[in-house]
Write a structure and sequence with these properties.
With 163 residues, the chain is of the alpha+beta class. The protein folds into two domains: 34 residues, no CATH class; 101 residues, DNA Primase, Chain A (Alpha-Beta Complex), CATH 3.90.580. Helices cover 25% and strands 29% of the residues. It contains five helices and nine strands, in the order E-E-H-H-E-E-E-E-E-H-H-H-E-E. The chain has a five-stranded antiparallel sheet with strand order 3-4-5-6-7, with helices on one face. A two-stranded antiparallel ribbon has the order 1-2. Strands 8-9 form a two-stranded antiparallel ribbon. The protein is globular and about 40 Å long.
Length: 163
């Protein structure tokens, strides 16, 4: 018997899915779901600063200098225009919170999925095109550095920012 099992919101195939009236299951082609993103790239995307991701995606993002955070001093409020909509986001490192909708998440993938109303596959493709230097890392390298205005962000490797 052919079955498909969902784990953690992702659909994985245990065995080949039988063809139904509309054809084979598009997610489970070849019997197993192919990896859309390797673990290293996904971890790098999860750790990226949300403000940096907004900049790389080409979103209009203006920091609200009149905002004074109550709990976490590193939190900043940004007024963002993405996908033709306006957002009021509180950003703290990789985490974001939509102050108007009381929803949030963490990591670049969550941010892209939320702002552009995309599924994981399309969000990953959007991040790949916006940040190709993160997806072209060879598996044996220990870190990747991203240059940005005001300095660089180092992902992995030593804490001193060197590769």
């Amino acid at each position: 018997m052919d079955i498909a099992v969902g784990v953690g919101g992702f659909r994985l195939c245990k065995r080949r899915v039988a063809e139904g009236p509309v054809g084979p299951d598009p997610v489970c082609t070849g019997g197993y779901m192919s990896r859309l993103v390797d673990d290293r790239t996904l971890q790098q995307w999860r750790s990226l600063d949300a403000a940096f991701v907004l900049q790389r995606l080409g979103c209009y993002a203006k920091r609200d200098v009149s905002f004074h955070p109550i709990k976490v001093k590193k939190t900043a409020r940004y007024h963002v225009n993405a996908n033709g909509r306006d957002w009021e986001l509180l950003l703290t490192g990789p985490k974001f919170w939509d102050a108007r909708a009381d929803k949030g998440g963490g990591g670049a993938v969550d941010l892209v999925m939320y702002l552009f109303n995309l599924d994981f596959k399309h969000a990953a493709n959007m991040l790949r095109s916006a940040m190709p230097e993160l997806t072209s890392v060879s598996p044996d390298s220990s870190s990747v550095g991203i240059s940005r205005p005001g300095g660089s962000v180092s992902l992995g490797g030593d804490d001193d920012g060197t590769a």
